[in-house]
Amino acid sequence: MNKHPEALFNWSGDKAGGVKKLFYKGSGRPSGLVIKTGLLERLGLWADVVAKGINQGPRVIFLIGGPGNGKTEAIEYTIGRLDEALGLNGELISELEGLYSGRMGGPDRLVRSISTKFPASSGIQSIAVVQDGSESERGSALTPAEHLYEDICSQLSGHDEELYVACVNRGVLDDALMLAADRGITPVGDLLKQIVQAVSLNAASQSCWPLAGNPRFAVWPMDVESLVEEVGSRKDSAARQILAAATRETDWPEFGTCAAGEMCPFCNSRKLLDVEANSAALIRVLRWFELSSGKRWNFRDLFSMVAHILAGGASGKLANAYSPCVWAASQIEPKEKNTVKREIKVARGLFRVVAAQYQHAMFGTWPIERAGALKADLRDLKLGDDPALAGMYQFLALDKRKETTSTLRSQLQGMVTHLDPASASPDLVLELSKSKTIQFKEIDRLFSLSVRGGREMLSRHRCLSPPENELLKLLEQADEKLSDEVTRRRKSGAADRVQAVVRLIACRIARRSIGVRLGITKDDNVLREFSTLLRGDESALQEAKQKVEGLLNREHRFHVSLNTTFGEPLPPSERRVMLTTTAQRVKQMSLEHDDSRPVPPVRFLSVGSGASPQPVALTYELFKATISLRSGMVPASLPRSVVALLDTTRAKLAGMVVRDSDLLDECDVRLGLRDEIVSQNFGKFVVRRRGAS
Cα–chain-centroid distance for residue 52? Predict the structure, then answer.
C-alpha cells in the first residue's frame, strides 16, 4: 500500500514526527530509520571502547546544541550501542525505557540506571542520562544552570564507575559558567570555560573529544556539523538519507496513477528527485544555504523542508482532511458549473500546482505586489474574464503564507534572499543537455520576446514537467492575446504592463525549474569558490587575504581614529585624532583540524604587524565582498555587516598599536586640521610640521 505523499505531511516539525521523545517509537523518526551521522558513528565507537574497561575513553559526555539537532536520537542510539557492547541483552534499554515511558512515574531531569547489572570487567556500575538539560528537576527550585553546575561538581569528584551523558543547549551552558564565576569555584569554572571555548567558533582549535587536559570529559557541538555537506565521493549525508527515504518508489503510487495523474506536482517532484543528478543538485542548494546564511540545517528543519516540497500543506479546516494528490486533482478539475468561472479556476489551479512542485516550493515568492495594478489593468483592457489572466491575478492575490508552517517560513524566506535562481546572474552557465549549454541571459532574452519562444526551446530539451509545460502554454496564449492589435488598441500602456507580468512569471518559472534541477543559484560562482576555500584551497584564500588587506589599509598606510569607540560615527574633521602607521599585514591562518573536533565552518585570517595579531573570521559576506571588489565594486558599496567587521578589526588593531612601543615608533598622530604631527622617537613624543623633513 502506498503511504506517500500523505505520510510525508506528518514529517513536518509542527507534527508528531517533528519532536523526538526518548524510547518512544512513535515520535521524532518520521522516516522510520535512524539517520546515520558522524556523531552517531563516534558515539558507537565510544560505547565499544568504554565497554572494554575503566581506563578506556571519556566517562562524561556533553552533547551541545539547540532543539531539532538530534540530541535525543543520539542518546537513544548510544544507550542501544552500550547495551550491545556490554552484552546486556536489552536489560539497560528496558530499564531506561521504563523510566522514560512514565510507567514508573514521570522521568526526572537526571535518570540513572539502578537495576541493570553491568559486567565487572567494564568497571561500570551505573549510567546517568540528562535527556534535556534545559529543564529543571521536578519539584526543585534550582534552575537548569544550577542543576548543570551541580552535575559537574559531582563528576569532577571522579566517579569513574558511572557514565554520564547529557544534552545541553548553549544558553544553559553560558548561564552555568556565569554561576561558577559568581560563586568563585575555580575547578568548575575552569572546566565550564574550557567547554564553552571548545564548542565556540574561534581561531584557536581546541580539542573537544576528549577535552584537552581533561580526558574524562568530552563535548561535541552538534550545531556545527553540517547535515547536508557531501565531500568528495562520500554520498551519505543526513539530507541524502532523508531524501532517499522520502522518494522511495515503492512508497508512492506509480507515476500518473494518482488522483491528479501526470499533472500531480508531488509525483512529478518525486520522479525528478529519483534521478541522482537532481537529488545531488538539491542537496547542493541546501548546502549553499548554509554557506550563504551562516545557519545550519537541523533534522527538524530538514524533515519539514522535505515534507513541504513533496507533500505541500494545508491549514485551518482543510488540514485534517488534506491529501496532496487529491488537492492537486481538485485544482486541475474544480467543481464549478459556470463555464467562465470554471476556466478561471482551472488556470488558477495550474499556477498553484506548478508552485507546489519542489523547484518552486523552495522559492515560493511571486510578484504579488503587482496584483492590485494588474486587476485595474485587466479591467481597462476588458480582460477580467480571460481565464489565463484572471487565474494569474487570483493566484497572485492569494495569501501563500498559509501554505507553510511558521517554523519553516523563515528558512524559505532566507532561501529566496540568498539563493533564488530567479535573481541569479545572467552570466551563469546552464547545461540543459550534453549538446546544449546556455546562460541565464539567453532564457531572459527568449522570454522577454515571447513566452512561446522560451517554452519551445525548453520543451525541445525536455526541461519542463507536464504541469510547467501546460502553464507556460496558458501564459503563451495570454501573451499572444496581449500582443493582438485589438487588445492593444483599448489601452496600450495597460497591455504592456500586463504582458510584462506574464513574461516575468514565465521567465521566473523557467529559471527556477532549470536552476534548482542543476543546482545553479544566485551567487553560485561565489558559493562554489567559498566552498573550495573551506576545504583548504589556498589560492582562493590568498586572493581574499590580499583584498582584506587592501580594505584595512589606505594608500599603503593604516589609518584609524583614536577618539571614537566602535559603532560611533567619525567626529568632524577639526575634532578628529587620527593615527597613521605602516600598513597592517594580513596573513593566512593554516587550517588545523583533526578528529577531535568538527570541521570549522569558516577560515580565519591573521591581521596585524605586532606581536599579537588579531584573528578575523573570513565569513561568507566578507569573502563575497572580496570577490565583488575583484569584479570592480567600489569599497563604499560594501554591505553594512562587512563594514562593521572591518571597523571592529581596525579598533582592535588601534588598541594593539598604541600599547606597543615598537609600533608607536612608526606612527604619526594628527590632531584635527592642524599641520603639526605628533610622533614618537626614542621613547619621546616629537611635534613636527606636516611635510617637514
Answer: 39
**C-alpha cell belonging to residue 472:** 507556460
The candidate with the shortest Cα–Cα distance to 387, out of 458, 485, 325, 470, is 470
Residue with cell 566517579: 159
Tell me the β-bridge partners of 110: 130
Number of Cβ within a 10 Å radius of residue 567 = 9
- How confident is the model over 138-172, as pLDDT tens digits? 778 888 888 888 888 888 887 778 899 999 988 88
Residue 352 CB-half CA count within 13 A = 28
Cis omega (within 30 of 0) on the bond before 615? no
User: What does the pLDDT look like over 171-184, one tens digit per residue?
Assistant: 889 998 998 888 87
Nearest to 531 by CA among 160, 125, 92, 232: 232
Find, among 238, 225, 218, the residue nearest to 45 by Cα.
218
The model's pLDDT over 588-638, given as tens digits with 9 standing for 90+, comes to 887 767 788 888 888 888 888 766 778 888 889 988 888 888 778 877 788
Nearest alpha carbon to residue 613 among 663, 559, 551: 663
Q: Which residues contact 102 (CB under 8 A, 6 or more apart)?
A: none
Question: Which run of H or E residues covers position 652?
Answer: helix 640-658
Q: By the 8 A CB rule, do 617 and 201 touch?
A: yes
E strand or H helix that includes residue 112: strand 110-112
Whole-angstrom Cα distance, residue 413 to residue 588? 34
Question: Peptide bond preceding 107: is omega within 30 degrees of 0, i.e. cis?
Answer: no
Long-range contacts of 528-533 (CB under 8 A, 24+ apart): 529/623, 529/627, 530/291, 530/620, 530/623, 530/624, 531/287, 531/291, 533/603, 533/618, 533/623
Unique residue bearing C-alpha cell 528558512 = 411
Q: Is 412 exposed, middle or buried (0-12, 13-18, 19+ CB in 10 A)?
A: buried
Q: How many CB atoms are closer than 10 A to CB 350?
A: 26
C-alpha cell at 182: 559568581
What CA–CA distance (Å, rounded) separates 491 from 79? 73
Residue type, 333: E
Structure-block grid coordinates of residue 281: 543538485
Angstrom distance (rounded) from CA 271 to CA 357: 11
Cβ-Cβ contacts under 8 Å for 34 (sequence gap 6 or more): 40, 73, 77
Q: Strand 217-221 vs strand 60-64: parallel, antiparallel, or unpaired?
A: parallel
Q: Judge whether 385 and 394 are in contact, CB under 8 Å.
A: no
| CA 432 distance to own-chain centroid | 28
C-alpha cell at 152: 559537574
**% pLDDT > 90, the chain:** 34
Going by C-alpha positions, the residue among 49, 415, 383 that lies closest to residue 215 is: 49
| Nine-digit cell string for 51 | 565497554
d(CA 72, CA 28): 9
Which triple of cell numbers denotes residue 509?
518559472
Residue with cell 604619526: 668
CB atoms within 10 A of CB 3: 12
CA distance 123 to 112: 16
